[in-house]
Amino acid sequence: MRERRYWLVFASVGIALSILFYFGAYNYLNGAPFLALFLSIVVLFVLVIPVARTLARKFEKVTSEKTKKWYTVMAVGLAVITSASLVFSLYDEYRVKSLDHAFDFQPEKALHLQVDLSGEMYIIEDKQAIAEWKTFLNQYEVKKMNDRKWNADVSNEQGFMVSLIFEDNWTGGSVYENRLINYGDMDYYQVLNGPVDIAWVTDFVDRHQSLTAKLVETK
Fold first, then answer.
1. What is the pLDDT of residues 90-138, one digit of tens each?
2. What is the pTM of this model?
3. Cα 127 to Cα 114, 132, 202, 208, distances in angstroms
4. Residue 36 and residue 25 in contact, taking contact as beta carbons nearer than 8 Å
5. Sign of the CA dihedral running 149, 155, 160, 161
6. Nearest in space to 2 (alpha carbons), one of 75, 48, 59, 79
7. Residue-wise burial string across 62-97, b where 16 or more C-beta atoms lie within 10 A, e elsewhere
8. 108 and 164 in contact (C-beta within 8 Å)?
9. Spatial separation of the C-alpha atoms in residues 108 and 101, rounded to whole Å
10. H or E stretch including 198?
11. Local structure of residue 146 (DSSP, 8 states)
């Protein structure tokens, strides 16, 4: 029984630390799974196994037979909860999602929608129009890109900037035909079922526009 509890603690701590490091490396490397896996294997042998072994031995020494069962349950439970939370967090970050979800687009809470298109800034305050905009964004599927794959040169691409303004916050970014950037967390996304219909955006602002400013072009 003692050996069984030792290995339960050892395995739980080892698994939790391995998953924690893998997802941390995966996120830091912007979704490079093979490199993150390689680094995790190296760290597993160099750091994780020795740490897990030390903690398991200390567990055997500092706990009585009466309390070992409960500490074992707690260690396994903590490892499972930690692992599940990290898996879900990473899955949600890198899964395919709608464009409006990538922007956390919540029109019911917005004061107005701001669209910067072809050098002009448009303010849309009508709630029905903002809901129509959400429906437009919702038809496109996007997936997070590796930062290293983002090409900063957008001079030859059609696109627009969009912002949803709240009372004390905002969300938005730049959308191009086949990719976009979220300015809130500076994440890059690829449009999977593009190109984004820029002509529809032009028609939308023509129908709902309230022209408020002329953007100054930077030469």
1. 677 778 888 888 887 777 778 889 999 888 888 888 888 888 998 999 9
2. 0.61
3. 13, 9, 18, 11
4. yes
5. positive
6. 59
7. ebeeeebeebbeebbeebeebbeebeeebeeebeeb
8. no
9. 14
10. helix 198-208
11. P
